[in-house]
Amino acid sequence: PQRVLTGITTSGTPHLGNYVGAVRPAITASRAPSTESFYFLADLHSLIKAQDPARTQRSTLEIAATWLAAGLDPSKVWFYRQSDVPETTELMWLLTCVAGKGILNRAHAYKAAVDKNRADGEDDDAAVTAGLFMYPVLMAADILIFNADRVPVGRDQIQHIEMARDFAQRFNHVYGRDWFNLPEAAIDDNVATLPGLDGRKMSKSYDNTIPLFVPQAQLKKLVFSILTDSKMPGEAKSTDGSALFQLYQAFATPDETAGFAAAFADGIGWGDAKQQLFDVVEREIAPMRERYEDLIARPGDIEDTLRDGGQRLRERYAIPLLRELRDAVGLRNLG
Ligand code: TYM
Question: Which of 32, 51, 176, 239 has the most CB atoms around it within 10 Å of its CB?
């Protein structure tokens, strides 16, 4: 079977970008015949950005409840917390020792930190942790430990998946066998990058997100705060580069989207357009919001589900793989 795998970093409240970029395509993919799916909470990754224990824990719970509310069935899909599979960090070291440092130098997140330091007149690596630098190797370990074929992600993660392929290839080459197959990013072209309230990529770091499960009234307020140009009703609007239009497209049917484009050309007022956007988002989110609220009220159940998933996954795949890899690289297996 095809193996599909993806994760979300537990560093905040899940937003519409995480939903359309990762959760929704992943759940759709998991329902395809002969697919084995692996969906997890990237809590080790969260330590890079959010060094706040209470926030990491709360975020883990919220993101787990989001997956479940969106329809993930833990009896059919591997659902787990990254840190519950400690073999991942061991594999990370094996990959670290074949990964080219030059490749990591080019990672977007690391480069952005260096560029910012330069702009501020600081040393290149001022306040940059080794964790940020090594981020792509940990992500490669997440993917390779279960030999995933497809990784549904937003466009911002493509580079990381290319790096995972590169590290896999090097490892295979050095250790003389196809230990790992080469994973591919699966990008939903309709929503490759969902814009946020200000038109830039929706991202916690830009503070421009629409959280998935805010109350209806707040969702409406947020939708009405999306930045538009100052064209009046009756003036033709451009769909090109319109955040409002892109958000609509991510939640509407193709027919609805065509109708919306026609309304733009006909000069729909921004207030009307925002109301229509709110309607399609609310239509999809409302049933999930109810399930989410039930789930989040029972954190003990979520905890049990995660722990059980991680435990079974270790026994089935992670422990046996690391045993083989330890042999392959010349380390001793205990017991
Ligand atoms: P993270 O937590 O930043 O984002 C989770 C997923 O949401 C997608 N996403 C978006 N998609 C479309 N439009 C947006 N505005 C938007 N914002 C976020 C991201 O592309 C991602 O798919 N490193 C990863 C987590 C991770 C992972 C992995 C993913 C760790 N290990 C292994 C896949 C496989 C991250 O920080 O994503």
Answer: 239
Q: Starting from the edge strand earliest in sequence, which strands make up the sheet with 78-81, in order?
A: 78-81, 35-42, 2-9, 150-152, 184-186
Domains by residue range for the chain, with CATH: 2-194+299-329 (3.40.50.620), 213-293 (1.10.240.10)
Residue 157 CA to ligand 1 center (angstroms) comes to 6
Q: How far is the CA of 152 from the centre of ligand 1 (A)?
A: 9
Candidates 270, 5, 23, 267; CA nearest to 146 is: 5
pLDDT(82) > 80 = yes
- The interface pTM score, or ipTM, of the predicted complex is 0.98
Number of the ligand 1 atom closest to the C-alpha atom of 45: 30
15: confidence class by pLDDT, cuts 50, 70, 90: very high
Do 250 and 277 touch, CB atoms closer than 8 A?
A: no
* Residue 92 near residue 141 (C-beta atoms within 8 A): yes
